[in-house]
Amino acid sequence: TTFQDGGEEVEDGAVYNVTLKKVQIQQAANKGARWLGGEGDQLPPEHTVRQYETSKIRAIKAGTLEKLVENLLTAFGDADFSYISIFLATYRAFASPRAVLELLLDRFGNLETSSHGEVANLNSLESEMVLRAEIASVLRAWLDQCSEDFREPPDYMCLLKLLDYLKNNMPNSDMESRVQNLLKQFQNQEVEAVDGFCSTSSCGLVDGEELEISNPEEFSSFQDHVVAEQLTYMDVMLFRRVVPYHCLGSIWSQRDKKENKNLAPTIRATITQFNAVTKCVISTILGTRELKIQQRAKIIEKWINIAHECRILKNFSSLRAIISALQSNSIYRLKTTWMFVSKDVLLMYEELSEIFSDHDNYLTSRELLMKEATSKFANLDSSEKENQKKSQKRLQLQKNKGVMQGTVPYLGTFLTDLIMLDTALQDYVEGGLINFEKRRREFEVIAQIKLLQSSCNSYCLIPDQKFIQWFRRQRHLTEEESYKLSREAESAADTNILSPKSQKSMVKRISTLFLGTDVFTPPKEPPKSSPVGGSSGESTDSASVSSCEFNHSETEDVCVTPVSSPEDPLKKSSVGSDKGYDSDKGSISSDKGSSSKGSISDPASGSDSGSIPSRDLGSVPNSAHRALPVYNRQSEGSCIIRVSMDGLHDSVYKSILITNQDRIPDVTQRALLKHNLEPDAVEDYELVQVISEDKELVFPRDANVFYGMNSHVNFDFILRKKA
Fold first, then answer.
1. Cβ–Cβ < 8 Å for 596, 590
2. What InterPro entries does this protein's entry cite (predicted)?
């Protein structure tokens, strides 16, 4: 089979990509094969007769809403077999369920008024049968793939409208019974507060129970694999409930608006869980002042072992959360404590951290995630023999149980990719047509989420109420508290370690660091990882332990300034910055400066690979995608910049696509809209590019931003009110 680009076809209200498909339909004629020397009925190669058939595949590229809905009924005839799935997964970005249902049932489902071209020449009976079959096929796919679209309490208008149509046109059908059952199911179910679901808020506590700082002995009583299994259980329950279309950039990017505080609750729940795990790690390490250095080091070792167990379970979400906590400012700065962590465990920690390396647009984590998405077990490789033996032993125990495992991803990877796609591609093309090519690109990411959700059905985990109650009881330290306790712990460690009795052994340990024997130190380069946003209900001020020293490698970013003293050497050397989820803002927090080792970046992170990787999902072959605009790189007359508001939201960055035609008023207006401010106040603001800590570039009022900006530094801008 070969494909050839057939150009475009333009109709009223729609533009189609055409692909010519050439298929070999007959290889040889059987008659007389033996006389020509063939065995059986096969002709020898020199006498082979080949016949080919060329068919045309039409894939809608852009169109009005009416044309896109009509195409649901004709897609199979045009050989665009993935169209229905793509439309159902992405239409919420440009239409409501009610608008689509009304078009489908009232305009195309009504035979008297339908102008459906495919059945226009058939007699009325055949026309009715064909149209009913097509509509039934679309409705069946809608109920199978996106039944949540019809959950509209308390009226359920769309579901009632659908039921009325089925009673009149398909009475007593299986679909009518199915819709009736779905309506009863929705009506009987209580509306669940999904953002408080599963383990992360104090509302799950027993009466009279209060939040508490972790007791090290109680935490140590839980076996490493038990903790990993329970974290995986909670992550699986939340990830399976994620509604894929909530991840679309056009929807997720609207979460900061006041009227959208309840937007995408399933994603917010996942973010809250991620933050809870990270804060739990920090609290168990720093929460008890009386701990000795060795005891604190043992807790760090335990969390590294738990992270390794998460890796065996293919739980990349909690794995990322734990690594992020260990690389946070308050934990990483415990240099003396890290010296007491064993070499083997530190090597394991290094290998786990490398999974989230920012090299080549986080290619390692992306490839690993897709490689293990549908595999039965984790594929564990270790450069350290002891770790390799331990990994294989644990993995063999998993295999002996005979239970396959799913894969829990770090959701921030997909949110970032979808926001970047939304920023880089236009919603509408010439003529006001909906850009459906953008939706096809988005579906490539959505399909990965659905694939991983399906794989999670393979998990067979039983909740351990003792651990879950312990996890819920943990009081999370604020950023200020964790940093203060970190300084106290390190100060006490320095006092003990430099006492006359231990000074001799300390000199010996330091000498071994340079010789590369026995003792292993934390990574030579400071880890830069994912921070923790606050759990649900906390204020933004105490919601994060993230440092803002680093460059944003996420798109819609929130970052809280760290609490650190001016003389703190860590701040000057940019050590311990964090990156991660912020639950209150419902976003991924990040940092300024160099890209983060422990975080998943977006395609605009300035890495070598600027485009988003795509997979062959059986969609219709199209012409090659053009390279998307990216952050920190100007290409083909466009790029992506990040703009924050000076004073108002100086730690919140928004991604904006600019071209070589954009001047200051255009960019300023778009930035104000992104930050949910009045776009009419353009004249009151000036746009400034941050060159360094003590330098900035102020643009004249009518300057061309693309040509006027400094392309040799980060594309970070500030929108500031004029004096």
1. yes
2. RA_dom, Ras-like_GEF, Ras-like_Gua-exchang_fac_N, Ras_G-nucl-exch_fac_CS, Ras_GEF_dom_sf, RASGEF_cat_dom, RASGEF_cat_dom_sf, Ubiquitin-like_domsf
Residue 490 structure tokens: 């390190």
* Residues 81/75, Cβ–Cβ less than 8 Å: yes
For 551-586, how does the pLDDT look when each residue is reduced to its tens digit (9 = 90+)? 333 334 333 233 333 333 333 333 333 344 443 433
Name residues whose C-beta falls within 8 Å of residue 246's C-beta, 6 or more positions apart in sequence.
252, 263, 264, 266, 267
Largest Cα span, the chain: 102
What is the mean predicted confidence (pLDDT) over 422-435? 93
**DSSP run (H or E) holding 164:** helix 157-169
Which strands form 428-429's sheet, in the order they lie side by side?
A: 2-11, 14-26, 51-63, 433-435, 428-429
**Are the C-beta atoms of residues 281 and 303 closer than 8 Å to each other?**
yes
Helix, strand or coil, per DSSP, at residue 442: helix
For 21, the token pair is 């498909």
pLDDT tens string 603-647: 333 333 333 334 334 443 444 445 677 778 888 888 899 999 887
| pLDDT(388) > 80 | no
CATH of domain 222-489: 1.10.840.10
What's the rounded Cα separation, in Å, for the pair 721 and 684?
6
Element (H, E) at 61: strand 51-63
Q: In degrees rounded to 5, what are phi and psi of residue 289?
A: -65, -30
Q: What is the dihedral of CA 200, 204, 206, 210, to 10 degrees?
A: 40
CA separation, residue 30 to residues 24, 25, 46, 50, 52 (Å): 16, 14, 14, 12, 17
649-659 and 685-690 strand pairing: unpaired
Give this prediction's pTM.
Answer: 0.69
Supply the DSSP string of 11-67, one letter for each residue. ETTEEEEEEEEEEEEE----TTTGGGT-STTPPPGGG---EEEEEEEEEEEEE-HHH
User: Closest Cα to residue 517, out of 394, 672, 343, 263?
Assistant: 343
Tokens coding 311? 């890796």
Collapse the DSSP code of 590 into the 3-class scheme (helix H, G, I; strand E, B; otherwise coil) and give the result.
coil
SS3 126: helix
**DSSP for residue 154:** T
Tokens standing for residue 56: 């045309």
Which are the contacts of 452, defined by CB distance < 8 A and separation ≥ 6?
239, 369, 373, 406, 407, 408, 409
* 3-class secondary structure per residue, 314-349: CEHHHHHHHHHHHCCHHHHCCHHHHCCCCHHHHHHH
**Most confident residue range from 136-150, 513-527, 529-543:** 136-150
Q: Is 163 exposed, middle or buried (0-12, 13-18, 19+ CB in 10 A)?
A: middle
| Gyration radius from the chain CA atoms | 29
Strand partners, 15: 10, 62
Question: DSSP states of 531-582 as a string?
Answer: -BPPPTT--GGGS------S---SSSEE-------TT-HHHHTT-S---EEE
Domain boundaries of the chain, sorted by first residue: 1-28+49-61, 64-110+129-189, 222-489, 638-721
* Angstrom distance (rounded) from CA 164 to CA 58: 33
The CB-side HSE value for 43 (13 A sphere, CA atoms) comes to 13
Residue 325 and residue 349: Cα distance in Å, rounded? Answer: 12
d(CA 88, CA 419): 19
CATH of 638-721, one of 2.40.37.20, 3.10.20.90, 3.40.640.10, 3.60.15.10: 3.10.20.90
Q: Give the pairing of strands 51-63 and 580-582.
A: unpaired
As a whole number of angstroms, the distance between CA 606 and CA 44 comes to 57
The dihedral formed by the CA atoms of 394, 396, 398 and 401, expressed in degrees to the nearest 10: -140
- Angle among Cα 560, 566, 571 to the nearest 5 degrees reads 60
User: What count of other Cβ atoms lies within 10 Å of the Cβ of residue 413?
Assistant: 25
Of the candidate CATH numbers 3.40.50.720, 1.10.3720.10, 1.20.870.10, 3.40.50.300, the domain formed by 64-110+129-189 belongs to 1.20.870.10
